[in-house]
Structure formats: C-alpha cells, structure tokens
Design a protein that fits this description.
By secondary structure, the protein is mainly α. The chain has one domain: Up-down Bundle (Growth Hormone, Chain: A). About 75% of the residues lie in helices and about 0% in strands. It has a two-stranded antiparallel ribbon. A hairpin with a 2-residue loop joins strand 1 and strand 2.
C-alpha cells in the first residue's frame, strides 16, 4: 500500500525544471493536498446536512408551506450546480485557495443570516442564494480540479476518496445537527453550520497549494510541467467550453444521467427522507441517524467505485449503479414505518453504497472525452445534477402538500433511474487516434 503514495527518490530526466531537478519526496505532496481537500469538503458538508432537518421546524414556526421551503432548497441546489463551472474557471484564474476560502466565508455568512430572518424571501436569499453560491464553488468541480492538477496516476481512486468526503461530513454533522434541532431549535444548528465552514478556512489558506509546480514537484505518477499562466476571462471560458461540449452527444447523455442522479439523491432523499419518515411516525433523530448511516456506506461505495473506475469501463459501471438505485427507490415506500426494522436497514446499506458512486465514472468519462477542459465540462454536468435535484426538492414538497404523501415521488424517481441506466449504455467510447501513416522511403 505504501507504494500507492510514495515515489522513488531518483529524479527522472524528464522531471527537471530550468533551475534544477524536481524534488521527489518519499511521500508525495499530492497526498497531503488530497488530505486537506478531504478535510475541507468535510467541513463544508455541514450545510448539505441541514435542509432536510429544516423543513418541519420552519413549517411549524413560520407556517410556511413545505412547497415554499422546498423552493428555497431548490434555489440552493440549482445555484450549487450553476456556479460550479464558473468556479472551476475562476480556480484557473485566481487559484484554488482564494476561490475556496471566499466560498466558505459566503456559506458562513448566509447560514448566520438565517437566524434573523422573518419572511420566506429571506430564506430564499440567505439559504438559497448565498449558501447556494458559496457551496457551488465548493462543489465536486473542486475535487475534479485538485485531482486533475495533482494526480496523473490513481485519479479514479482519489476522485472516489474526495467524493466520499461529502458523505463523511454528513456522517459527522447529521447526528449533531438533528440533536440540536430536536432539543434546542433550528437556530443553533444554523450557527453550527456557519462555524464549521469558517473553521476550515485556515486549513485551506495555509496548507492547500494550487499546482505541483508551486512546490517544485511533478504530479503524482506524472512528469513535471511548469505552472500555467492564469487564464483570464473565466466566465467567457466557462461558456465557451459549454458551447463546445454541447455540440457533442456524450455531453447531453452525461448531463441527463447526472440530472437524474441529483434528483434521486440530493433533491429527494437528502431533502425529503427525514420529513417522509416523520410522516410515518419515525422520530426526526432516528431518521437523521439513518441518513448518517447512508453516509457511512457511501464512503465505502464511492471509494470502491473509484477503484472500479480505474479498472472497468465507466459507462457500464454507471448503468449498473443507476439500475440498482432505481430498484431500491421503488421499494422504499413499503419500508417506511414508525420504527427502524431490518428491511429498512437493508435499504439504507444498499442505497448508501450507491449514493454518489456515479461520480468517479462520470468524471472519468468527462476526462476521456474533453481532456483539459474536463473539470469545466464536469462543472456543467454537475449543474444539470443540481438542476435535477432542485426540481425534485420543490416537486417533492409540492407533492406532499397536494397528495399528503411522498409515495408518487419515490416511484417516479425509481423510473427515472431506469432511464438513466439506458442512457449510460448509449454513451459512445471516444475513438482511439489513428496512427500516422509511415512515410515512403
């Protein structure tokens, strides 16, 4: 295992700078950067753990409909996705550290301001807009950018580990936040989210580095390359990359499958599982505990998915993941009950292993088809993920208000996952470049 994180102390001839050989420490600095990124995503995961816990307390205190609260969550989720490609371009312009530090500060400000809100539009502004914009800059495009810059080998594994960080944060914060909401109200939970985001800022500023060349290193498993000059026109580049990718079939298939991914995870389960379980008599703390257990198995499933992505065809992995998720969601309405029983635990384990296992193969397909623009393309694919999540976050609350139950939303999401499995199989492989013909002698 040590060989996975170490490199030889001999300096290859290709890995030299104009000032001398590249340093190659025994434990490559890329793994420390990945560790800081992991901790940062965990700290920022607190904001993602809270929306599902807010629906009932805000409904009871302010008498806002679940559809209204769901709309604020949907704005948050949509902006989370739509900000991601611009954030990836801004990281190319201003550096990872600056963008992430500002994003964490914006998250903290938005979460703190909710403590003083008195009207629904303030919830939309503070939690929807501010936290949405900040969290969008901390989206999976951040993990993709770090992976692309610091790693040549083990990219699938590292992507899986960094993706799992969000689930680890959910595991850390959900039990605490649910306990705070249950015993002290929702305001202390909002303050906790803000403090968690602010606590990570010093780690980012002091320990994170933008590029291997900043410390005289080659990427892990690759050859030294000088740090590229800052790319100006971040917004223009993000839009240009979108238009270029939009002329290709794989982009629309990846965007469509990932929209369904967001609808069936963040938009549905993360937002509505706790209130749906509470409708069936389950205590909020017990339902939040089940979501935390999903986070435990999500860590295992996502890291395993990264390992599989390094070894198997990504589009086939996606098809399997979506098909299994769809089947599990179709059974969920029959499993909700006042108490936690073995079939529900089986669902939690099964669904948790699949929660964001789709991310490593999706990033791998973006990298395969779009090369150096893959982080920005993945940002736009992630935008579709969050738009899908936003639609279901709002539709789920609306369905609950209209039908008095979430059942129709679970069944619809299961059917959508089946469609996503078929779409994944349609994604074509990128053709191998043809060898140059030999010149006649």
């Amino acid at each position: 295992m040590l060989d996975d994180v170490t490199q030889t102390t001999e300096t290859p001839a290709a890995a030299r700078t104009p000032d001398g050989p590249v340093r190659t420490p025994r434990i490559h600095r890329a793994w420390f950067v990945a560790a800081v990124t992991f901790v940062t995503i965990i700290g920022a995961a607190a904001f993602a753990s809270l929306p599902g816990l807010l629906i009932e307390p805000l409904h009871e205190e302010f008498h806002w409909s679940r559809g209204t609260i769901g709309f604020a969550v949907s704005v948050n989720l949509a902006l989370y996705g739509l900000t991601a490609p611009f954030a990836a371009a801004l990281m190319d312009r201003f550096g990872i550290r600056r963008v992430v530090a500002v994003a964490l500060t914006v998250i903290a400000a938005g979460s703190l301001l909710t403590v003083w809100m008195t009207a629904a539009w303030q919830l939309v502004l503070y939690w929807g807009v501010l936290v949405g914009l900040g969290s969008g800059s901390m989206a999976l495009a951040f993990a993709a950018t770090v992976t692309n810059r610091w790693f040549t080998a083990r990219r699938g594994l590292v992507t899986g580990i960094l993706t799992a960080a969000g689930a680890s944060g959910q595991l850390v914060f959900l039990p605490l936040l649910s306990w705070l909401v249950e015993h002290h109200g929702w305001e202390p939970a909002a303050v906790t989210v803000a403090l968690a985001a602010l606590a990570v800022v010093p780690f980012v500023w002091l320990l994170l580095r933008d590029h291997p060349a900043d410390v005289g290193l080659a990427p892990y498993g690759g050859e030294y390359a000088p740090k590229p000059a800052p790319v100006t026109g971040a917004a223009r580049r993000a839009v240009t990359v979108l238009f270029r990718a939009a002329r290709t079939g794989p982009f629309w298939l990846l965007a469509g499958t990932f929209a369904i991914c967001g609808a069936s995870t963040n938009g549905l389960v993360k937002t509505h599982f706790v209130p749906a379980a509470h409708d069936h008599g389950m205590p909020v703390t017990a339902a939040a505990g089940l979501l935390a257990v999903i986070g435990v198995f999500d860590v295992v499933g996502t890291i395993a998915s990264g390992w599989f992505t390094d070894r198997f065809e990504a589009r086939r992995l996606l098809a399997v993941y979506y098909a299994l998720r769809g089947v599990s969601l179709l059974f969920l309405p029959m499993l909700l009950a006042p108490a936690v029983h073995p079939p529900m635990l089986f669902f939690i384990v099964f669904y948790g292993l699949d929660w964001v296992a789709t991310v490593p193969p999706t990033i791998a397909l973006c990298r395969e088809h779009y090369g150096e623009d893959s982080a920005i393309v993945f940002g736009w694919v992630l935008a579709s993920h969050q738009v899908g999540a936003a639609v279901i976050a709002f539709a789920g609350g609306l369905a609950r208000d209209v039908f008095g139950s979430y059942d129709i939303v679970w069944y619809a999401s299961g059917a959508l996952c089946a469609a996503a499995a078929l779409m994944a199989l349609v994604i074509r492989r990128k053709p191998e470049p043809k060898p140059e013909p030999l010149a006649a002698v």
